[in-house]
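FORM 12-B: Structure-to-Sequence Request
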């Protein structure tokens, strides 16, 4: 069953059916118990009436047992012998004995009416006040057999003889009432279930109508590949509305990501075209006129292509979510090492390591790449000095790279971290690079849980400090294949 509406309707119908079935069964049981108790109360009243007559000394033959069909009566003595029965009683069960004829040895109340010492008043017995015993059974009166609820009440005659009166009340009314209620429930249950299924179907259909609209629009977006389209958002504040808003947010993020990827591919193609064209021209000239081959220029273009390819590879890995390796990296030692390897810089770099315990968790190669890019940027814009300072901050380790250049205008301080962005004064390819260095530096800093910001000519790299004992030794490896700059 693929339809959500059908599953919801079926589920609601099954739940309601089970609930109504359980409730109906409980109602029938309670109704049957109440009606049975009423029948037992009627039987007890009839039994006590006969027991009262016995206690007053009424002879067995003169007992008023009422309507035998309505309340069949059987009286037994202490030995279980039948001493009296109601009129037209032909068979009985459920009273302890099935005999319906008085025993010949019992007499007709002679013992209870023996006038001792000529006393006209033989006295009176008593009726037991204990809770009577109840039992279900059957009785045949004048050829009609029926079910009864019997009550057994003890009575003591004037002569001290204990008798037990069994009187019954018919259960036919109870059976008819229970059958009527059960029939009504069985007849009404299908109607109720149909109503529940129909209402659930309609309500679910109405609730899922916006979802179908979202599905159709998503299918249209997939077919057209137009990520600028958005799904309709219902005016309600329920889960469907939140789903529509989240879907539109996802589409917006996807559109931005695809746009960024397209711009990246276009910019990368543009950046690769120039050195490749220059290298091809030099090689073609060298093939035609070997004496005119510019070997240093060809090598420079090749190095530039290699650096650009390394940058693009690192960015691709960062975009793919590659995690930085967790190792202990001493930023103070790393800065000294990176600066010592920069033998060709036009301006010497001053290093100041102010504190100890400057270890962070991350990839040594990626962090070296960040420092190299920041130093390259400072060398490109400095006039006479470049300085690097490493120290502790309130929440980690702070590395600052400062030059004495003009600095970054406030309006451009976020834009310079975008890919392939170069400020106007650094548009020359020989001096400004491809515009990927600062973008790579910020991405790497973010992957390490840190930040990279700029204020004028001062770049600040903040990284969280970690417990050195909780990290493995520094493997001194780089995901960029060893190309730091």
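FORM 12-B RESPONSE
SEQUENCE OUT:
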């Amino acid at each position: 069953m693929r339809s959500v509406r059908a599953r919801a309707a079926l589920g609601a119908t099954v739940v309601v059916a089970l609930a109504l079935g359980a409730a109906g069964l409980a109602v029938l049981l309670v109704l049957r118990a109440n009606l049975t108790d009423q029948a037992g109360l009627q039987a007890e009243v009839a039994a006590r009436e006969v027991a009262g007559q016995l206690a007053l000394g009424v002879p067995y033959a003169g007992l008023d047992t009422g309507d035998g069909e309505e309340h069949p009566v059987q009286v037994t003595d202490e030995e279980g012998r039948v001493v009296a029965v109601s009129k037209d009683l032909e068979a009985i069960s459920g009273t302890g004995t099935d005999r319906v004829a008085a025993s010949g040895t019992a007499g007709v109340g002679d013992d209870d009416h023996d006038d001792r010492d000529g006393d006209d008043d033989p006295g009176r017995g008593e009726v037991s006040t204990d809770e009577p015993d109840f039992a279900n059974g059957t009785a045949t009166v004048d050829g009609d057999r029926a079910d009864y609820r019997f009550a057994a009440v003890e009575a003591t005659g004037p002569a001290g003889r204990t008798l037990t009166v069994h009187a019954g009340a018919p259960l036919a009314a109870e059976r008819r009432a229970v059958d009527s209620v059960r029939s009504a429930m069985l007849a009404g249950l299908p109607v109720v279930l149909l109503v529940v299924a129909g209402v659930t179907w309609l309500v679910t259909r109405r609730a899922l109508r916006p979802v179908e609209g979202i599905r159709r629009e998503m299918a249209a977006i997939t077919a057209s590949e137009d990520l600028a389209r958005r799904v309709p958002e219902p005016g309600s504040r329920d889960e469907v509305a939140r789903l529509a808003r989240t879907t539109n947010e996802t589409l917006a993020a996807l559109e931005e990501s695809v746009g960024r990827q397209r711009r990246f591919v276009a910019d990368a193609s543009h950046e690769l075209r120039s050195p490749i064209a220059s290298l091809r021209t030099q090689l073609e000239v060298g093939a035609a006129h070997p004496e005119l081959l510019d070997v240093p220029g060809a090598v420079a273009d090749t190095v530039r292509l290699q650096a650009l390819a390394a940058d693009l590879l690192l960015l691709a890995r960062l975009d793919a979510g590659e995690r930085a390796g967790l190792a202990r990296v001493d930023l103070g030692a790393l800065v000294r090492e990176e600066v010592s390897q920069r033998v060709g810089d036009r301006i010497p770099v001053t290093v100041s390591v102010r504190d100890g315990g400057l270890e962070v968790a991350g990839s040594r190669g990626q962090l070296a790449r960040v420092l190299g890019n920041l130093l390259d940027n400072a060398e490109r814009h400095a006039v006479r000095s470049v300085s690097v300072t490493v120290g502790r901050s309130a929440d980690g380790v702070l590395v600052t790279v400062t030059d004495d250049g003009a600095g970054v205008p406030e309006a451009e301080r976020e834009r310079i971290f975008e890919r392939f962005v170069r400020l106007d004064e650094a548009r020359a390819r020989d001096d400004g690079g491809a515009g990927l260095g600062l973008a790579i530096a910020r991405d790497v800093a973010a992957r390490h849980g840190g930040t990279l910001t700029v204020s004028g000519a001062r770049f600040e790299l903040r990284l969280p400090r970690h417990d050195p004992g909780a990290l493995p030794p520094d493997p001194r490896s780089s995901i960029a294949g060893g190309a730091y700059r």
